[in-house]
Write a structure and sequence with these properties.
By secondary structure, this protein is α/β, with parallel strands linked by helices. Helix content is 40%, strand content 15%. It has two domains: 236 residues, Type I PLP-dependent aspartate aminotransferase-like (Major domain) (Aspartate Aminotransferase, domain 2), CATH 3.40.640; 92 residues, Alpha-Beta Complex (Aspartate Aminotransferase, domain 1), CATH 3.90.1150.10. 50% of the residues are buried.
Length: 356
């Protein structure tokens, strides 16, 4: 095991996840301001009404929005609102709803998740075909929703044209499209598209609008781009434990992040920091960045013997230990100094395990 003495100081910030970051000043200020005086519970307050209006304005269409506590819960609310227990969700085998939500979507919907092989994290239209043959047969769960992640779990993004092609294929067979937008801001700035072009104009039916990874203390929003699909969502949200009694505090964060496009400003910074990190470790012998980062994630192959010492020095998550693949995440709070320190530690620790 490499000696961890005489190493550079670890970064102040974490590269484990964008969830590790705190919140930006405007979010804290918004929470403090929302704390003044009483407000009726369960969304019957001015902050929630203004946040719902802001989301309608952002998307340029009369969407219906439902504020939730967190990402898994929001995905559950989105899917359970449009599914019957005999129906199924088609998604990539790497999807967050499959590998990182402890079976919550299936438990709350009764619907199975039918996985397809991913193409760089994405679901391609032709990948739906095997399950489309099940339509109409009482012996098979009926595919009803295609769920995609934007950005994907592999750090890639769908272009608007790719989303549109998938929506066209799904809709042609009567399926809906759900977009898990935990990192939607990072994807928007990476593609250069705006949100209406990416989700409204492509045909997405319901999305989870990510807040926490973009700077909120907590909270996400389920947005039905077809408002009729949300007619059961209020009941699903309550039953799933996702109705916040003090909804104003989630709403206040939405308003703060949307004001002046702060949500995009923070995502742009996070993406840029990932690019800087990839460049900073590019010449470290034994380290291979698998692809230039598109959003705020860097995937790198690292010598197996260096992974555990690196994690002890500054924790991050391994991604696939069979190929010594790790993931380093940046956030709105990542600094250039964090990048320099982390790259210096990678260089020092990997250098102690790589045989000259």
């Amino acid at each position: 095991m490499p000696d961890l003495d005489d190493l550079p100081p670890p970064p102040r910030g974490s590269f484990a996840s964008d969830n590790s970051a705190g919140v930006p000043p405007e979010v804290l200020d918004a929470l403090v301001a929302a704390n003044e005086g009483p407000a009726l519970a369960y969304g019957d307050d001015d902050w929630t009404r203004r946040a719902e209006a802001a989301l309608r304005d952002l998307l340029g269409t009369p969407v219906e929005s439902f504020l939730c506590w967190g990402g898994t819960g929001a995905n559950v609310v989105a899917l359970a609102s449009v599914l019957q227990p005999w129906q199924a969700v088609v998604c990539a085998d790497t999807a967050h709803v499959v590998v990182d939500e402890c079976g919550a979507p299936t438990r709350f919907t009764g619907s199975p998740l039918l996985t397809v092989p991913h193409a760089a994290g994405k679901v391609e239209p032709d990948a739906l075909e095997p399950y489309l043959h099940w339509l109409g047969s009482e012996h098979h769960p009926q595919p009803a929703v295609v769920s995609i992640s934007q950005a994907t779990e592999m750090g890639t993004v769908y272009t608007p044209d790719e989303i549109a092609a998938l929506c066209d294929r799904a809709h042609a067979h009567g399926l809906l499209v759900h977009l898990d937008g935990a990192r939607i801001a990072n994807a928007v700035v990476a593609t250069g598209a705006d949100l209406p072009t990416m989700v409204r104009d492509t045909g997405v039916d319901v999305m989870t609008f990510g807040l926490t990874k973009g700077g909120a203390m907590y909270g996400e929003a389920v947005v039905f781009l077809r408002p009729d699909l949300g007619r059961r969502a209020a009941f699903v949200r309550k039953q799933a434990g996702q109705l916040a009694s003090k909804s104003r505090f989630i709403a206040a964060q939405i308003l703060a992040l949307l004001d002046g496009d702060q949500w995009l400003h923070h995502a742009r910074h996070a993406n840029a920091m990932a690019g800087q990190l990839a460049a900073a470790v590019a010449d470290v012998p034994g380290v291979t960045v698998t692809a230039p980062p598109v959003v705020n994630s860097v995937f790198a192959s690292v010598p197996a013997a260096a992974i555990e010492p690196l994690q002890r020095w500054s924790f991050f998550w391994e991604w696939d230990l069979t190929v010594s693949l790790v993931r380093w995440m940046t956030s709105f709070a990542t600094t250039a100094e964090d990048v320099e320190r982390f790259a210096a530690g990678v260089r020092a620790i990997v250098g102690r395990v790589v045989v000259p």
